[in-house]
Amino acid sequence: APVVLWFRRDLRLGDHAALHEAAKHSKHVLALYVLDEALIKPSGAPRMAFLLGCLSELDNALGGRLMIVTGDPVREVVQAARDIGASAVHVSSDTGPYGRRRDAEVAKALADNNIGWVETGSPYAVTPGRVTKPDGDPYRVFTPFHRAWTRHGWPRPAETGPSLVDWLKPGKSAKLPKPPSLGEMRLPAPGEEAALDAWHTFLGSGIETYDTDRDRPDREGTTRLSPYLRWGAIHPRTMLADLAGDERAGAKSLRAELCWREFHADVLWHRPKTARENYDRRFDRLVCETGAAARQAFDQWCEGRTGYPVVDAGMRQLLAEGWMHNRIRMVVASFLVKDLHLPWQWGARHFMRHLVDGDLASNQLNWQWVAGSGTDAAPYFRVFNPLTQGEKFDPVGDYVRKYVPELRGVEGKAVHQLKQRPAGYPEPMVEHAHERQVALARYGAITGS
Ligand code: FAD
Q: Which residues bind FAD (predicted)?
């Protein structure tokens, strides 16, 4: 009997463990994607546009045989499977809170129809929940997780491709919706081929300097693969296999960064509520600003009009590109939480709306890491100084000038500690040294230090 391969966060055909498994059971496979309102609604325009691009690329790679339906996954998946007389529906596990709930319901509805449910692999090299301490407890600190994750290891990439099976022609299929308008925003080319191209280019030139350049927002020093990893246009196992045995500093750092992605997914798997709530419950008592003045301050932060050049450059990069450099994500997040004293959830929501790589686990838990309320020995008393961070990581000021046109006339690193403010560029909305003291006092009150 034929089977269904339901695509979700695995929009590729190479190194696809669930496709490999499906092919063992049947040569006749229906490729299905469900546009689910529950996921579409909270996705901002950049992420939605990139998803639609990836789906269109996948459909091309399948010779136009991707069945796309819109609606409730429970109804649509069961219907599609029944229509072709499928024996089973194959998927890569979705380990996020919504995906787990949805999949439990779909699997149950399929079982009621005598149709099997087979999960193989996940968007991670090691499926969340698999790496635990010897006593079975989850890790709370990155470094020992990283060691255990490396020891655990992962399978070789699955040998799959478009011609592994015969793709069934869908009986009915909705057209892909028109992508939302992005104005002048340019996103990276979507899809598996573009992901592999970007990765191979990076392996050829970027990996050599990754270790030193990855903290430099003024350089193209990182892979820029996060949107592809988000939708599974490339699997991290493919990347880790290419990096295997490579002991150069850049390769080691990149393996560690990929492990951060897995660590956060693992934390969210064990504690799904940390998508909204503090991991460290002491932080529930932290005094945050939430009134009308806080709303106004939040708007200034969102628009990149704080008067702190590197913060403004970051916030405007997010609006212009749907992406922000990791170092700057940390700086602007620290500013929101520790200089403006706003709830980290406000910032996380804004990021999720605008990031093309917006990912619940990576976003919420990185926000919590910066806020000090997350896992790890994250030092809540470490308050980034937005001026010196700018001088250190954007030493010539090119990053700021690129995104803040009002400051283009200021030369060199003087762009960070402005002697004079060009017309139209705002005064600092708060005084960092003072707000740092306020933050430390508030943290002291909840941690007893
Ligand atoms: P590279 O440096 O090339 O790293 C390669 C890959 O490793 C990335 O694509 C990403 O998948 C992973 N990675 C790197 N750093 C991290 C990290 N700190 N945490 C988790 N994974 C990491 N990343 C997202 O993918 N989605 C998010 O929604 C997201 N939100 C963030 C919010 C905040 C406040 C912070 C501080 C970081 C966030 N990150 C998020 C992590 C990181 O900033 C991005 O993954 C990275 O900037 C993507 O660029 P890149 O692909 O060039 O990274």
A: 210, 222-226, 357-359
| Fold of the 123-158+192-270 domain | 1.25.40
pLDDT one-digit tens code per residue, 236-274:
999 999 999 999 999 999 999 999 999 999 999 999 999
Distance from Cα 306 to the centre of ligand 1, integer Å: 24
Say which residue the tokens 């994500």 belong to. Answer: 329
Tokens of 183: 């104005």
Give one DSSP letter per residue of 292-336, joined into a string: HHHHHHHHHHHHT-SS-HHHHHHHHHHHHHS---HHHHHHHHHII
Contacts of 197 (CB under 8 A, 6+ apart): none
List residues near ligand 1 (CB under 6 A): 214, 222-226, 229-230, 257-258, 260-261, 264, 326, 329-330, 333, 351, 355, 357-359, 362-363, 366-367, 370
Q: Which residues pair with 283 in a beta bridge?
A: none
Rounded to whole angstroms, the Cα distance separating 396 from 332 reads 19
Identify the architecture of domain 3-122 in CATH.
Answer: 3-Layer(aba) Sandwich (3.40)
DSSP bridge pairs for 3: 29, 88
End-to-end CA distance of the chain: 65
Tell me the C-alpha distance between 407 and 375, whole Å. 38
- For residue 102, the model assigns a pLDDT of 98
ipTM above 0.95, yes or no: yes
Rg (CA), the chain: 23
Q: How much of the chain, in percent, has pLDDT values that exceed 70?
A: 99
Domains of the chain, residue spans:
3-122, 123-158+192-270, 281-447
pLDDT digits (tens, 9 = 90+) for 298-356: 999 999 999 999 999 999 999 999 999 999 999 999 999 999 999 999 999 999 999 99
Q: Rounded to 5 degrees, what angle do the CA atoms 211, 320, 298 make? A: 95
* Superfamily, domain 281-447: DNA Cyclobutane Dipyrimidine Photolyase, subunit A, domain 3 (1.10.579.10)
